[in-house]
């Protein structure tokens, strides 16, 4: 069951990536990011209020948000800080790079998760899993060669470095999720609600320093329907992902790889919607990434 939940998460993540590209194009990144996380927080707020005023009813629905000690709040705040940094870097990169370049680089995330799962959680890969992960990395390198034809030089482009750093931080957060769900026994909606709450606070501090004091930046911001859509789709994807992680048999390295199947939506549909270059050539490394994911699942 946890694999099917992972696939559901991947579908919503793919749609989330398309909306995110629409939201940040020609727009101010930080307020867009705040808008998306705030939308997710508002989506979860009724469940928090309902859990406070009518806990039995929300427990029966399976959406009860628990009271947790301050120590667990501290652990959730760490996750919020990691992901806030990852999103700031990723959104800036997405604003300046084609989605058909950004998404495959993000697809290297399972490799970092893979290494962490081996050393931290002692998950043991078999030969097919090794081949699958190196196929993913090799395909990302091939994407870098295609990216040069669009004027994107991976060694000299700071946005490429930003998306690589964002990918590493995102993978670190994925490993941390297993600790929060399985070791601290947080239910998905409790983790999601407080994660959104602390992330909103962090982003507000960033905006107070970098955005609110500048009139020209405030005027440049454009509200779009895709901003709340990003937040809603992300929280839906995370809910299925965290539900999958609740299964004691769930392997974080496999779940991380399953989530990469979102690139079918991002590369194929996104390439058509945003009319980006070299779509056919990008199908070759896309096939490599998908083969890598298949080998992992098959193994």
How would you describe this protein?
The structure is a single chain. The chain is mainly α. The protein contains 14 helices and no strands. The chain has helices at residues 2-24, 29-53, 55-61, 70-96, 99-106, 109-119, 127-148, 158-183, 188-210, 215-220, 226-245, 252-259, 263-273, 279-298. The two termini are 17 Å apart. The mean pLDDT is 83.
Number of domains: 1
Sketch the topology as an H/E string, one letter per element.
HHHHHHHHHHHHHH
Beta-strand content estimate:
under 5%
Task: Characterize the biggest β-sheet.
Answer: none
Helical segment tally? 14
Query: How many runs of DSSP E, i.e. beta strands?
Result: 0
Low-confidence blocks of residues? none
Q: What distance separates the N and C termini? A: 17 Å
Helical content stands at over 70%
Shape: globular
Strand-pairing-aware structural class: mainly alpha
Mean pLDDT: 83
Cα Rg: 19 Å
List the helices and strands and how they pair.
Elements: H1 2-24, H2 29-53, H3 55-61, H4 70-96, H5 99-106, H6 109-119, H7 127-148, H8 158-183, H9 188-210, H10 215-220, H11 226-245, H12 252-259, H13 263-273, H14 279-298
Summarize this structure briefly.
The chain is mainly alpha-helical and 299 residues long. It contains 14 helices and no strands.
Sum up the structure in keywords.
299 residues; mainly alpha; 14 helices; 0% strand
